[in-house]
Structure formats: structure tokens, C-alpha cells
Design brief:
Organism: Noviherbaspirillum sedimenti
Strand content: under 5%
Shape: elongated
Keywords: Ion transport, Membrane, Signal, Transmembrane, Transmembrane helix, Transport
Number of helices: 4
CATH topology of one domain: F1FO ATP Synthase
Number of strands: 0
Distance between the termini: 39 Å
CATH architecture of one domain: Up-down Bundle
CATH superfamily of one domain: F1F0 ATP synthase subunit C
GO cellular component, one term: proton-transporting V-type ATPase, V0 domain
Subcellular location: Membrane
Pfam family, one: ATP-synt_C
Structural class: mainly alpha
Helix content: over 70%
Order of helices and strands: HHHH
Radius of gyration: 19 Å
């Protein structure tokens, strides 16, 4: 993938995540509920933003890592088919980044 395209896709994903977070924060349903004290409301708001960013950034970086590692793994597999098991481990490790981000966001949401 061209680095310029990746940068554009990354900025579009960040803009979409920011817009979705703003819609979640400023939704009329949250204003109709009982208003918590200002400090508690800010903590909840920033906690939701942090959980969303943890999931979004880890998923984007895991996708980028799997693309790079997967391409190299396929190239190595074409030359030496007996490396399949070892190469599968590398792709799995790259995918683990997304799982770690999801776990962090679940921990953040549990603290709210």
C-alpha cells in the first residue's frame, strides 16, 4: 500500500472516530438524563473518549502490522513452505495488538 494512501486512510479514520465521539458526547439522550456534577461528567466523557481511542488506534495499528507481516510471510512461504508454523505465529502476534487495545478499553469502561 502506498504510504500516502495509508496516511489519508488513517486521517479519515481518525476524523470518523472523532465525529462519532462528538456525536456520542453531544447526543440529546445524554442531556435528558440526570446531570451528574461537572467533574464526574468530564471524567465519564474523557473515559469514553479514551476507550474509543484505545480500540481505534490499536485496531488500525494491528491492521497495518498484519498487512506488513502477512506480505513478508507470504513471500517467505513461497520460497520455503516448511516455515508455515513459524510465520503463522508472527501474524498472530501482530493481530494481538488489537486484542490488547480492546482489553484496555474494557478496563477503562469498567472503571467508569
Amino acid at each position: 500500500m502506498n504510504m500516502r494512501r495509508f496516511g489519508l486512510a488513517l486521517w479519515l479514520a481518525i476524523a470518523a472516530a472523532g465525529a462519532a465521539s462528538l456525536l456520542l458526547i453531544l447526543s440529546p439522550g445524554s442531556a435528558a438524563a440526570a446531570q451528574p456534577p461537572l467533574a464526574e461528567g468530564l471524567i465519564n466523557t474523557w473515559g469514553l473518549v479514551a476507550a474509543a481511542l484505545a480500540t481505534a488506534v490499536s485496531s488500525l495499528s494491528a491492521g497495518f502490522a498484519v498487512a506488513k507481516v502477512g506480505t513478508a510471510a507470504i513471500a517467505a512461504l513461497a520460497e520455503k513452505p516448511e516455515l508455515f508454523g513459524r510465520l503463522l505465529i508472527f501474524v498472530g502476534l501482530a493481530e494481538g495488538i488489537a486484542i490488547y487495545g480492546l482489553i484496555v478499553s474494557i478496563l477503562i469502561l469498567n472503571r467508569l
